[in-house]
Amino acid sequence: EENQNFEDLMRKIEPNYQKYRRVVYGRQIQSKPSVPEKYGEYEYYSAFREFNRIAYEVTMRRKIGRTKTQSVFDLARVPIVKDPHRSFVEKFKLTDDHTKLAYTIDLDGSEIFYLGVHNLAKGYYYKDHIPNCGTVEWAKDGKSFFYTEVDEKRRPYKVKQHYLSDYVDDDKTLYVEEDERFVVELSQTKDTEFITINSNSRNSSEVRVIDRSGKDGYKIHQVSQREKDVKCYLEHLPGKFIFVTNTGGSNEFRIMKIDDSLEKLVPASEWKPFWYPECNQVIDEVDVLKNHIVFYTRKNGTACLEILDRKEDTTFQINLDDDFIGKITPGVNASFDQSSVRFHVSTPFDMGSTFELDLQGRKSTLIDSEEHSGQPIDKSKFEVRRVSVAAHDGEEIPMTIISSKGLKKDRKNRVILKGYGAYGISENFEFNPVHLAALENDWVIAFSHIRGGQEKGSRWHREATKMGKHLSFRDYISCAEYLVARRYSHPSLMAAVGGSAGGLLVASVINERPDLFKAAVINVPFTDPLNTLADKTLALTIPDFDEFGDPMEDKDIYHQMLSYSPYENVTSQHYPHLFVTAAVNDTRVPFWGVQKWVMKMRKYNKIRKNEPILCKDNLAFKIDQSGGHFGDNEGEYLDEKIMELAFLDKVIP
After folding, report:
1. What pTM was computed for the model?
2. Contact in structure between 223 and 231 (CB atoms under 8 Å)
3. N or C: which terminal CB in the chain sees fewer CB atoms within 10 Å?
4. Mean pLDDT, 10 residues at a time, over the chain (653 residues)?
5. How far is CA 347 from CA 284, 320, 326, 431, 470, in A?
6. DSSP letter at 320?
7. What stretch of H or E contains 446?
8. How far is 631 from 109, CA to CA, in rounded Å?
């Protein structure tokens, strides 16, 4: 019945869907090799091959100064992969001598990962794969690797060591994380000296290390202890460990150091300062090199790079533009002793550019830009506004508004208000072809940087957790009210959009203030938090206690959650037109939780007199029968986003 209802909707929005699809798919990134990057004796780069006449990405290399190329990783050649378009690689790691590659792959979007090895020296993929794996790192001699194993809830919790000469059943267990709030991840320090075992919960961390040389028999050494509301990430420089951490009561992350002696555990109270960010500067990423440390930060919400020159003990910044809006991410930058770094930039109007920063000359150079077919992108036609919205409690909420240039504040503009507000995840302004198509058709897109995210640092996140969760919803309502009060739009022209935890946000808000929106798009939403978090057998229940609290152990949390849970608060009233998605194989948001909320919405939603009926109860429910939380593949995900925009176009013409 739900499938038939959705097909009925699609017939009505088909012209809009095809209009946007022609624009989005007509403006595709040109498949071309990436600019090669030096690593050891090789230059590595990505290229494209075809499978069933559709391009997919492969990794290639050639020796420096040579022309002969070699395939490093090709999904179509992996023995257990049937369709490279439906599978994706999560991680791959080279041995120090570049003769073997370990990789983890997801075959179908289910978030079940298989670990395999490609013997680059002999040119074949090992047929057997280790299922239910997480992260992987090699020992220095390349004879064995370390990997994490997941439990029945798909939580990485165990560290094992596998020798290529042995059977998997003989793998030795080195560490087991018993606390179900924590997941275990492996990484390697940039100088290749250590493997780090990171036990992370939503709000705290603990770090152990293994000497990759094996000179102490791969003994595990603990270098930091878990502490409530303290997170910690480790890197290594000659003679010292450095920590990216918020220890010592700090709201924000900073850099601390200790000697790299592993004789005893040094308490955090004895760590020494190494580098502190400025006020209103938030650290997103850190890239540690031999002579420089590159900090990917945001200052007052604007992404920029700050570089510490360790030889001269000075810092300098790389700012792209005074009014820059976009996302900056590190390149591979695999070599510890390199004198330059690459970083990637994506903006709402730029599909992607790669820059190389000369760390000695302190100058960045554009070395590559994504090229696309179809309609040219003219960013001069658009403008970006950063505004500050007064919350109900006096807090200032940042909001970014993107529109056509010369926008009139006459309450006649169609507005999409996006929100997330959880897990310390910030809204990033990377290129989105569907957003661009909407902007070109006179939609305004507003990004609400509400509490629960990290736009204003760790405090911004923590304030909207547990007993403060309601602040996310109140902030989002304040942003919607601002758009109306400042004449950007009118409730009859506004759409609320959010997915996953952002789906919880939107579904809760339309219970409280359905009058603010004409339509809502809600993707894989967490609509039944009370019942989900009461079931400790589910994958994310225990880890999510740090974000939402435990409603079965804390009566205050129970009543707080009861007050905002979308399912519990559905009432008989006029709701916006709804476009809802869910996935049967979703391990993060149970399908049954979305399904029963949809059924209750159908029961209680009142249709206004003379309201156009697009589908049953003006609620379209799209069910993914095969994919997981993140869908099947990029093409299907893009099609879904186009459907959503076509739906909004029909509801708000």
Report:
1. 0.92
2. no
3. N
4. 89 96 88 91 95 91 96 96 91 96 92 95 95 97 98 96 95 97 97 98 96 97 94 96 90 92 93 90 93 92 92 89 86 94 94 94 93 88 96 96 96 98 91 95 97 92 96 98 98 97 98 98 96 93 96 97 98 97 90 96 92 92 84 78 97 96
5. 17, 12, 4, 5, 31
6. S
7. strand 443-448
8. 6
